[in-house]
Structure formats: structure tokens, C-alpha cells
Design goal:
This protein folds into two domains: about 45 residues, no CATH class; about 50 residues. A three-stranded antiparallel beta sheet has the order 1-2-3, with helices on one face. The chain is elongated, with a radius of gyration of 18 Å. By secondary structure, the protein is mostly helical. Helices cover about 50% and strands about 10% of the residues. The model has no long low-confidence stretch (mean pLDDT about 85).
């Protein structure tokens, strides 16, 4: 199970610091050779992490449910759709596991 700080994360007005909705600091993106615009983009990506994590969790659970209900003998899925079904959920699960420290 994830141990990260739950809840909404947001960037500060200068967009290089990420805080919780209540003001607890999560991260500060420092220059490190990056332009201010790049720092702000990285901070926004970090701020989106809880939402992305929840979306991945929902997708993986929903996908498993969906796949159990497909009548594989009557489906008209093409090779690209089948490739997606085989590869993408696994990639999302790997990212989800990485975020959870598994």
C-alpha cells in the first residue's frame, strides 16, 4: 500500500513548490540546470501524481473486470486492440507497483 501523502497536491503561485491542499510541503523543484519553465512543468507533474496514481488503480481494477466479461469467441478485435489489451494494462500496473514501492 502506498505511503505517500494522500489528498490533493498543488503547485504554489511560482509553480516550483508542491504543497498539499492544507499547505504541507511535498517537494521543491530546484534549478539543477533547468529553466524556470522546465522546473514549473516538473512541479506540475509531481502535483498530478496522486491523481495519476488513483487513475492507474481505477484502470487496472476496471480493466480486470472488463476482460472477464468479454466473449472471446465472438469478439471482432484486431491485432492492435489485442496488443493494447496485452501490453498497456501491464505497463500501468508496473508503474502503479513502482509508486507503491513493490
Amino acid at each position: 500500500m502506498s505511503k505517500f501523502t494522500k489528498g490533493e497536491w498543488k503547485t504554489t503561485p511560482i509553480n516550483t513548490v508542491v504543497n498539499t491542499k492544507t499547505g504541507k510541503q511535498i517537494a521543491t523543484v530546484t534549478k539543477g540546470g533547468k529553466s524556470l519553465k522546465e522546473q514549473q512543468a516538473i512541479a506540475r507533474l509531481i502535483a498530478a501524481a496522486p491523481d495519476s496514481h488513483e487513475a492507474c488503480k481505477d484502470f487496472v481494477e476496471g480493466w480486470a473486470y472488463f476482460c472477464k466479461r468479454i466473449d472471446w469467441d465472438k469478439t471482432f478485435l484486431d491485432a492492435k486492440a489485442i496488443q493494447f489489451m496485452n501490453e498497456v494494462p501491464g505497463k500501468i500496473q508496473q508503474a502503479f507497483n513502482k509508486a507503491d514501492g513493490e
